[in-house]
């Protein structure tokens, strides 16, 4: 019978921590024995001595027979032997030095403190824990509240949980260290170090040895391309001797008294020395110290939390790395120049300049300067056939919004027709957008037809998905560069001269379709990713599948220099709100805000209001059983031959629709793998079908 490998216990490794290391080692051994289904006492005792190694064997040989008669007796004897080795002063010192780290939840910090406190033999454990929690917690708000109010440990933890939940609800993206440790519990090795010169506290480094996708980056270290594992728990940079030997340009190693231990097996790593050098990644550069260690051949290099933060690399979800460059700057998508198809038959129009009020001219100039600095607009010299006026709208928060009146210019633009959202595909309510009447301009547009996903297609794509991310592109249309021959059509007049756009702009009627098409082309070959104009949706049936799809999408966007709005991005959620619907593992239901908007609507007072209400209800009709029958009294009012009358049948239909919507349930996804049955029926006022 072949036995699994298990590290022997090193008694003389570090006598100060022998008790702690023994308790951890024996617990891991018992887990191994349980996993091997070994219950016979003699076998358990034999394996303890076998796995304990030569030092344990020699020690057990000195015990009297009564102390080694069975597994539990031998375990107790060994525990009693090592327990006196615990240094209470040293363990208490370590406890006082513990602080919450950035990626650690308050509950996790509490667990870590409680484990260390168990070694200190405190007389009042709860008071000591509360004191160190207040001292070591990151949140100064919690600390002030705890010092101001007399709170118990339980109350402090509850207040901390409430604060963390509130922060999450207002949209702060928090890395969840607890999730990371849970998902990779069997695959994580922690390395800590003790600096004997500075007496600094131990700090963690997570080394992930797993076949699953793990967060890695390739960085330039001394003109060498070196691959590192990135982890928020890392406190020091580790470079294996294998990687060091492969470097073309080596730096002299300086001796260092640092001691680095393997967390799971308590084996001290052989530190060969350290060096300080420049490291560069994604255009960012910093100086960092690296410790070269003698490790097994397959060991990985580790990048510390401090270093990857200085390189502006952020980490999310255990196995996804996100470059801060994705959120910096204003973006110009690489490899694309938009050519607008201008109908030369349309006579160019140079419209008159519209005077800008003096009190907002400085704000206007500042806005123009900002757009120039962002490479979005440029000065225009000489004659130009097309000139459009601008409308300057003061913002409530200060500053101005610059709008170019493109109504006449759009008449000459041949439009690329990428299908736009139908009534079913737009959000029912929530905010408004003022649109220019572009009917005349659309007559001159030659359309290119590119498909755009409908709501039904989005539903089918998300079928079965349990994890979701949504990425919001920054300044949307401005990320697409206009070709030189297309820029003249965007010329506009200001009180400081003529300007024109170098990027696609919101006033051009084909802009949404063009952006949808080109972003779709960038992502078309990535599994589990789709876009709806400026929103990119990533999904997966498992956490691993989602993370793999998200990483591929982020890498592609970074490669094509697409910029994102960090504050509007959603990562790794189990529910996704999109197009007025909430998608989740259990199915699809309406967004509560949409239900509220419709349920608070007042009764229509004319035919136009009835049409508007029915338009909103049509979008959510899939959630209302018998929709056609219920709406029949209202639809009758929209007929030209029907005189306006709002009586009991209409009011009842109106109220019934709102009630049905308020009580709407969850719709399941269509599963093509299951048997399909369609049941149809008809009535004088409607048709019905059930898909089961």
TrEMBL record:
One molecular function GO term is: RNA binding
Q: Name one GO biological process term.
A: proteolysis
Q: Which domain of life is it from?
A: Eukaryota
Record keyword Magnesium present: yes
Q: Where is the Reverse transcriptase domain?
A: 374-583
Transmembrane domains' residue ranges: none
User: InterPro entries of this UniProt entry?
Assistant: Aspartic_peptidase_AS, DNA/RNA_pol_sf, Peptidase_aspartic_dom_sf, Retrovirus_Pol_polyprotein, Rev_trsase/Diguanyl_cyclase, RT_dom, RT_RNaseH_2
Query: Per the record's keyword annotation, is rRNA-binding included, yes or no?
Result: no
Report keywords, A-Z: DNA integration, Magnesium, RNA-binding
Q: Which PANTHER family has this protein been placed in?
A: INTEGRASE CATALYTIC DOMAIN-CONTAINING PROTEIN, PROTEIN CBG26694
- In Swiss-Prot or TrEMBL terms, this protein is called Retrovirus-related Pol polyprotein from transposon 412
Q: Which organism is it from?
A: Elysia marginata
